[in-house]
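In response to a reviewer's request, we include the raw inputs and outputs for one of the modeled complexes. The two entities were modeled together in a single run.
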Amino acid sequence: MAHGGPAIALLLMLCASTIARAQEPELPVSEVAPGIFVHTGATSLMTRDNDGAIANVGFIVGDSAVAVIDTGGSVREGRQLMASVRNHTDKPIRYVINTHAHPDHGFGNAAFVGDGTSFVGHKNLPRALAMRGQFYLDGFRRTMGDALIDEVRIIPPTLLVADTLKLDLGGRILMLKAWPPAHSDNDLTVLDERTRTLFAGDMVFLSHIPVVDGSLKGWLRALDDLAAIPAQRVVPGHGAVSEWPAALAGERRYLDTLAADVRALIASGKPITAAAEHAAESERSRWELFDDYNARNATAAFSEMEWE
Amino acid sequence: MPRHRIQLFCAAGLLAIALGMHAARATEAYDPWPGLVQDIFNNRPMNDGSDIIGIEMPMRAEDAAIVPVTLRTRLSPGDGRRVVAITLVIDQNPAPMAAKFELGPDANVTEISTRVRVNNYTDVHAVAELSDGKLYVTKTYVKASGGCSAPAAKNAEEAKNRIGQMRYRQFARLGEGPATSMREAQIMVGHPNNSGLQMDQVTQLYIPAFFVNKLRIWQDDSLVLAIEGGISISEDPNIRFTYVSNGAKHVRAEAGDTDGHVFAHEWKADDSGT
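The model returned the following structure tokens for the whole complex.
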């Protein structure tokens, strides 16, 4: 048949691509509590070498369904997370919960699009994705390359959380809470009531310097409410799974120091450039990626605090 | 805005990355400056401005939404000319003309600091127009920020809530007592300064532009600065500047935005306040 060759070639290509997807390696996860699986991201910037896999991502398995919490920094990472889910359970993924708009947490969303899966996020998440999505796609193309970025889709949530929301995975209740502006203006946390495990998203950082992309004052105000959440352990957005609320101590000290230093600079009439150079300098040895984010945090904090 | 330029740049950038070049060098592939000289300055001749005007920015945009920039005039005291206006151009931004500052004829403004958005690796030009009618240009280079920083609102509700709030602050000048007439002051205007260039990825519609396009500052009735602003100016426009006091008792500022709102306020010159 004259057209048999191309048809077979196409079929082979489709098979090859299906096989490639099926063979996507699993993202390494550990079961930090019964039915709770976490991949700990590399403390690094997103690059083409690490597939953008720098944030903690995970999933929770209930009696009848699964919830995935954050999907990673590329669709490739998302597919690997999907492979891990499938290696541990056949139950349907009913929810994909995005803790906020940042690309290291949500660029993997496209791997989970399917019938019966709802994307869940803070009520402000659609707006944040609308305002930032294209910029993120353009910006990360520079550092991650076309192969990883071409397949990323900005997928906003359809199930929005304005205050709190309970999700039932079958005998397993997840309590979602939408926060006022803190790390970002669309932070969502997830508490698994069965094991008292808190997925804090980027409301909590360990080892990786906290990143202020919402409101420093709001974040400081939120810390007490956050600490009052009756959890035993936290899965932070970045850093090791840790005891709760002791895990908050480092972040609280950093944010307090940053706020105090910035306020002092403003009071003495210093320009915003002085904040980038001096604020929270005493914290330098205590955090990874300090030079990548501290000057930026200080700049953002200064422009916020000078309205006090 | 010439959209084809952005696309051209993107295409060149992709090619550069494909060839394994450093991304920063992609900007060398296409230089928008000659076109900007035509569009913004009507192709008037550009003279070397390194002795006329200085531009200071950080090497890297730490926060893409808030990049500090300081412009300093460098005319010697004996020079008979004066700086009439300074135009700030961020070449690779979607709307490159960030601001035009007209300097009040009697205010002797020598330093202006503000904050801008920087979307990309870019040259930033400052063009001074002198009273001799000539243009003098100087430039610097800024690397785009990394990570999850974006040239967009961090706290969109707060940005809306602050619309129209104004603050004034008077700073003491180091080593210059109150007896001298040199002053340093800051005006802040609460405004989200939405660019209108962000496309909603779901609806494919652009979010409407809404920004401060005019800000004028006087000491009593004498103009200190008249600023024509664009969308590259950061949220909550913030201008810190030096000037020579004419003995005025009051400083007054009037801001206007693209929706026709006018915000005006007057303060005692030697106080700070809201």
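As requested, we also summarize the result in words. The mean pLDDT of chain B is 86. Chain B touches chain A through 51 residues (CB under 8 Å).
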